[in-house]
Amino acid sequence: MSECAVKIERDGAIVVSESVVIDGHGSVPTRLRVATHIHSDHIVNLGSSIRSSYRILGTQLTLSWLSVLGYPVDNCSTPLNYGSRVKVGDVSVELVKSYHIPGTAQVLVECADGRRVLYSSDFKRPGERTPVVEAETLVIDAVYGRPSYVREFDDEIEDILVDLVKQLLSEGGVHIYGYFGKINEVMELLRNGGVGAPFVLTPKVYMMTRKAESLGSRVGDYLLVGSREAEEVMRGGWYVYLDHMSRAGRRVRHRASSVVLSGWEFEKPVKKLAPRVWHVAFSDHSDFRGLVRYVTQVKPSRVYVVRIRSNGAEEFAAYLSERLGIREVRVV
Fold first, then answer.
1. Which of 145, 154, 187, 224 could make a disulfide contact with 312, Cβ separation 3.0–4.6 Å?
2. Distances from the Cα of 295 to the Cαs of 74, 88, 97, 118, 230, in angstroms?
């Protein structure tokens, strides 16, 4: 592999200069693996990396949450703050903040010859809440890579969700279902939007929230489901219960409402699926227009679109080549 070369492995691992691997294990032995965040498609084969004695680098929150999820990273992890750098062989690695779920990072690798490789990881609202840096080579996940994947209401969806929860709380408890990390993002969003009802949390979400609080997050009152205090507030009917998406659809308490969070909705921000059951198009990823805006701001001369974590990768690559005039675009 030549200096500053990039290789995308079958598991989605991004290998840069044979010195660092990102969000996968890969087939090239290395010393450092970067975990950009905790979502399952970004921690593929993490156990293999740990068993191979890789150092696992990420933000302190990401590393703490990986421990909660059962990955033994405590003795092999290297926490790195946003904007800080670590030297690995002949490259330096920097984590750049990404607005996705708490703790998420873009990865900027600067090689010995001064060239820069940027991996986007997952993000939304580029240039506004996700800072964008320039790089000669961009590796990007196009989760919503088809031109039809556009949500006209993206800029308003956070306020829409907060207003819906406030409305439903006036009628009883509210049960919200989403993926790990997204749940914590929503908790902060609700508090910032003026929702004061106690949060009732399942064990993993509770432990993740405690970890986040130890690092400075503040989400107000939250209780562990099954505790005496949680049972009392749930009987009172003024609470927000948060759980993993896999448990959506389960029976909830009398007069409680269910809110299911999903990004795979492009027509309406909110749909009523059944009495007291709502579907909200709340996504942690940029839609097609946000992806294009991000690439435009990075100003790369070479782009790799990671097929395994993209939808419409070929369509997105064709758009970058034909409409943005990027001379080298590959789907890998």
1. 145
2. 35, 27, 16, 11, 46
